[in-house]
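Hey all, quick one. A colleague (J.T.) asked me to put the iron/sulfur cluster job into the tracker so the inputs and the structure tokens live in one place instead of scattered across chat threads. No bug as far as I know, just bookkeeping. Sequence used:
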Amino acid sequence: MKKEAKDIFNFKETSDACVKCGKCVPVCTIHQINPDETTSPRGFIDLLGAYKEGKLELDSNAKDIFESCFLCTNCVSVCPNTLATDMVIEEVRADIAQKFGISWFKRAFFFLLRNRTIMDIVMKLGFMFKTCVLSIDFEGRGLRARFSLPMVKKGRLLPSMAKTSFLNSYPEHITPKESSKQKVAIFIGCLANYNYTTIGDSLVEILKILQIDTFIPKKQLCCGAPAYFTGDVDTVEYLIRKNLDYFETFIDEYDAMILPEATCSAMIKHDWEVFCKNHNKSELIPRIEKILPKIHMATSWLHDNTNLKEQLVAKGKKFDDLVTYHDPCHARKVQGIYQEPRNLLSANYKMIEMSDPNRCCGFGGVTMQSEKFHLAELAGKPKAAMIKETKAKYVSAECSACRVQLSEAMNNAKVETIFKNPLELIAEALKE
Ligand code: SF4
Ligand code: SF4
């Protein structure tokens, strides 16, 4: 179910519009692992209505409940009134952040997201000294905590760190040998920029093969999603303004700005506008609406606007490897994108569906991956089990947050399947 900006709500209206049918309850990610009415979409809506009427105090108990939502949007997809429970939760988190403050490590992280140069230095130092506190996973899946760190327990699998970020690895403009009819810009996302840099390498390779003029905008900043899901309003506004000012300097010259990340794409395409409406920044809305037609998830744009599928069929290597595709919530439920990556991958790989590809992986955001990691671990277990059942060599999803979560869930469950972004698999098939 696509979130539209017109679906703006207020707590009271959302609460009054809930007919208590309960359709959302069985599909709710938190309710599946904590079967209690208070941690269900219907329960959240009831509590939020009471909070806005002044009948419920936003105390630490209420905070704990509202922070347990995974923002997966499963509830929105099945609700007969398409009530945007995820969006009301996102909004109450701003109130939580205002009342309780934001913990030091999240503030430090969001500071780095706002300051690319400092983040570059920190990540470089992290790469150089990573083996002091982390060990390299012998199967190459990432880094493992040698001992317990703040919010990270011993043995947890963390994303690897690149020596040089994606944005610092390429020139701004990559021009194909033959003259090109198409021009795209790449928005890479923070995890693919610093941790999973082979995603960007693969996208650049694919664009070269397709003879597409490529621009890598070096001053792009984080889309704001980690701060938005945590209620850090100032950081979200800062990042929207900075990115918007920058995008407007070049976007008219390009056919599209493509993103190999579902969450960043959903944040820019849907949540920027929602945030501005809810936080009285309506002067930004016409500017956002102007750039939106150019924002696309990478597989979706490549599928619909290039001959990539034909090239994969005609020239790509054929593999016997089984690939199972996991649907990131921010791709399928928020943007309706699920056929495109499968269609491209099926040209060169044998596809096998897991029992419920649309079930949330349980990443849930910064809070879920730190203070509430026990919930993320529980939510990841069924997903790891269904991936194991497929006996696939690769699980693929166009989302690095899913990669962090599923790699750890598979690691815990001793599943040997390897996670790859679809662009990595596609580039592998096109390699000479
Ligand atoms: S967004 Fe997901 S976890 Fe949150 S209430 Fe809806 S279904 Fe439950
Ligand atoms: S599906 Fe919608 S209307 Fe029904 S209980 Fe859930 S939120 Fe309320």
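Adding what we noticed when we looked at it: The two ends are 40 Å apart (CA to CA). DSSP finds 21 helices and twelve strands in the chain.
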